[in-house]
Amino acid sequence: MRRRGIALACLMAVFTALFYGFPDAHLVTWAAIGLTSAAGIAAGVVANRPRARAPWLLLAGAVVAFTLGDTAYNVLTRVLGYVEPFPSVADAIYLGVFVPLLIAALVTLTRTGAPSRDRASVLDALVFTASAGLLFWILLIQPQVGADAPLLDRGISAAYPICDVLLLAVTARLVAAVRWSPAVVLLGVGGFGLLIADVLYGLAQTRGSWQIGGPVDLGWVAFYACVALAALHPSMRQLTAPRPIPPAALRPGRLLVLGLSTLIAPVAIVVQVRRGATDDVIVAAVVAAAMFLLVIARLYGAMNVHRAAVTRERTLRRAATDLVTATTAADIESTMRAAFAGLLPPGTAHVVLRQKARSGLAVAGSDVRLIARADLPETGLPGLDDFNTIACAPLVVAGSTSSRDHGSLLVAAESQHLIALHDALPLLAANAASALDRITLNEEVNRKSTEAYFRTLVQNASDVILIVDVDLNVRYASPSASTVFGPADLSGRNLDELISARPQPGSVGVLPGQWTVERPDGECVHLEASVRDLRHEPTVDGLVVTLRDVTSHLRMQAELTRLAYHDELTGLANRVLFQARVDEALQQDRTAEAVVAILFVDVDDFKVVNDTLGHSTGDELLRAVSQRLREAVGTAALPARLGGDEFAVLVQTTPVTAVEELADRIVALLNEPFLLEHGLVHSNVSIGIATTADATDGADLLRQSDMALYLAKANGKNQWKRYEEATHAALLRRMQIRVDLDEALRTGAFLLEYQPVIDLKTGVTAGFEALVRWHHPSRGTIAPAEFIDVAEESGLIVPLGEWILNRAIAEAASWAKASATPPYVGVNVSARQLRQPGFVDTVLTSLRRHGLAPDRLVIEITESLLLTDQGNGWSDLRTLREAGVRVAIDDFGTGYSSLSYLRQVPADILKIERSFIGNTPHSDKQRALVDGIVRLATTLDLAVVAEGIEQPAERDVLAKVGCRYGQGYLFSPPLDSDSATRWLQRDWIPA
């Protein structure tokens, strides 16, 4: 759409230049301008598919008629040689075709999608139009009516300004009644451009100074261009979609315009009396009286609005009281029907329904949507087919993340009544959802209490007691028998049918034994049995069989044996079994190509999980990691847990590349988010690989794999490294980096680059993220991933971070001096830097020294850093925010934060990490996940920035789900200081 708009604007500019540059070609170039505008409107209708096409087709017809009128006039004057032909066929086209089509198009656009008009806006438009009409009468119409010319000539001359007054009225009504959007603004600019050109043309004709090709023609060019651009812009669909009319609030701007408009008539009376123009005085007096009546009508409407608001508030308060006492869903639905019956005018036909399951009608959050009947999916709900428009509100508590989904509240009525309910409907839906939450919670509490009672009885059941006769037929079974034999009645059943192994029936005394019973569900239960012969007891007269379930004891014995060689938490092989299997593998004969390899796997930043989410969540994460590790290695390798967050995999394979492929598979699989009880947790692993190509015994293998693991973590984690001789060199190189860092800070070998952050709606640069680069004298440019961790470990991150902060603030201050809307600069702050005493004073002092406004600085911190430093870190961030500095949570979703923390976090911006963005155009789940993050951030009043946007499709998906800002190589790579300044001065936006 943007490309089409740019193409049309360029084409219009070319034709306009040709029009002014080649006067002899006016006939062709002017017709080309008009036909291009009509084609643009048609293209916009085809591309944007508005709900109602008729208004736009009428507008296209009006443009064609205007072009035909201009062409006819140019033919008469340029080709046939007439000098100012009047009246002519051009006047017939203007007044008989163009003006009616244009007024019909604008009126239809104003009414389509909002049948209920805001009377206050209508009255305001009439006041403005009446005052403007008076000026038209005095300046244009009255001179034409009083001129010495034939009646037909005077009538046609007067008709032009009268038509302009009508056009002014409908244009003012469109701008005042419809919520502003790019399409509305363009239509308003085009309409007022046409009016201004017509007025200037009329004045020029009165003075006899009119000629084609003057500056007045630019007003008509603006009309042609703006109506076409309005049709091409996607917001044109909103004009014909069902929508509420916002009340005409008397804001200062509107009040000033209305006040000035009401003064035009009195001023005109004074001026015309002094000039002796009595006819104009009468007309001005009539206009003044009309304005007085309009003001009275405006006040009466305000009283009606207040009366309706009082009635609505009383009805809502009564409904809220009834919902508090409701005990069933039926009571809530009855209250909803009563409430809407009170809110709607008496006798209004309507239907109120609750849709229990979410469908295409439901919307997220607490928004209300007006849906045309033709756009409705099939709901199967009665009564909806009799109405053209339905209001749909989700039954969720606004702003709550724990509210259950109770479906949607549907209200069907005439459009004007639904629009009047637009403010009350979300309140009633939220109150109903709250009542449904309460009822559902009570039901769940009662159900859980009952379940706990019966569960306690089952867990405390006694041993099974059976009384059997001499033939082993059961005469009595205790209630606890159902836990072993099932719920069936055992009376009359024979033990042979129930027990697969038992003592001989003639036994007397206590006969211990192990019996096995197959329960109805197929599970085998092991029983310890004792039998006593009580046939001599008259009260018993039989054999008493006591059965004790020892299944758990036998399982415990097997479990103890298993635990000797397996990890208790994950069920993987433990260090003892793993070492034994390694020794066995090394003792076996191997071919020249076959190798034994150990993959040492360590969970990155696992301590953060334990410290922030607790050890129970850490244990749950380890179990999830072990399960994925099993899936990754399959049956071809032995996974084991060596302790803590350390795992190992024993592989016997041919060739070595298979080991590396396995490492790739493990890293990729464990990089996917884990859905734990606490919520979604992101984790990754680093892997060190050692093979028998470099080691001869198990101890060497473990040592070398551990060294390779250390190198993998040092190089940025979330990767694997194989032990090689170069591994030692890599470790030495890391130590050298520590030495070189100090020298680089002293000599100033660092520089900053800036990556733009783009407003996805407007394409305007909102800010830059400052990125540090190190130009090493011998190694060239070193990526931050190679030295930031080293700087953290050595403490050099503190002076480096302070240099970055001062440099970025100074650069942003220079942008602020060169731009009316300066962008902000985002600076990453490390954990050690944030914990440094005096960090807040350092930031504020730098801002004052360079003269940068605090809101132009954004401090970016990772979510894992924030959650591990909730004490002084949070306090310092709150102090900075109180001073005006904004805070961003960087790489959101890659740490281990709980969503509940976001309510407490002192932050303004949420930055979504690249891994969430890359697959959104092709994955519904990924798109839904990003949509959820954006909605969550919006609910918490956080701005959202998507990182790593590389494809237009990714940008479009993010804009569609409501993400406001983005950065990535689609827009620009990181820029040096001069390039960033030129970027801000650019006059184009990349597509």
Question: What would your notes on this structure say?
Answer:
The chain is α/β, with parallel strands linked by helices. The longest helix is centred in the first third of the chain and has 48 residues. The C terminus is likely disordered.
Task: Give a brief description.
By secondary structure, the chain is α/β, with parallel strands linked by helices.
Number of strands: 25
Helicity level = 40-55%
What's the helix count? 33
Mean pLDDT: 78
How would you name the oligomeric state of the polypeptide chains in this document?
single chain
The amount of beta strand, in percent, is: 5-15%
Measured between the Cα atoms of the first and last residue, the distance is 11 Å
Structural class label: alpha/beta
> What value does the Rg take, in angstroms?
40 Å
- Give a short account of the largest sheet: 8 strands, mixed, barrel
Regions with pLDDT < 50 over 5+ consecutive residues? 359-365, 503-511, 987-991
- The global form is extended
The largest beta-sheet arranges its strands as 17-18-20-21-22-23-24-25
Task: Pick out its properties.
single chain, alpha/beta, 8-stranded mixed β-barrel, 5-stranded antiparallel β-sheet, 991 residues, 15% strand, 25 strands
Helices and strands, with pairings:
Layout lengths: L1 H20 L4 H23 L5 H26 L9 H23 L7 H27 L5 H27 L4 H26 L9 H16 L4 H4 L11 H24 L2 H48 L3 H15 L7 E5 L13 E4 L16 E6 L13 E6 L1 H6 L3 H36 L4 E5 L5 E4 L4 H4 L9 H4 L14 E6 L5 E11 L7 E8 L1 H13 L11 H13 L7 E9 L2 H8 L1 H19 L3 E7 L2 E8 L3 H14 L3 E3 L2 E3 L3 E7 L6 H17 L5 E3 L2 H23 L2 E10 L5 E12 L3 E3 L1 H11 L2 H22 L5 E5 L2 H5 L3 H12 L6 E6 H6 L3 H11 L3 E7 L16 E4 L1 H4 L6 H16 L3 E4 L5 H9 L4 E2 L10 H8 L7
Parallel strand pairs: 15-16, 18-20, 20-21, 21-22, 22-23, 23-24, 24-25
Antiparallel strand pairs: 1-4, 2-3, 3-4, 5-6, 5-9, 7-8, 8-9, 10-12, 10-15, 11-12, 13-14, 17-18, 17-25, 18-19
Helix pairs in contact: 1-2, 1-8, 2-3, 2-8, 3-4, 4-6, 5-6, 5-7, 5-10, 5-11, 6-7, 7-8, 10-11, 11-12, 11-14, 12-14, 19-20, 20-21, 22-23, 23-24, 25-27, 27-29
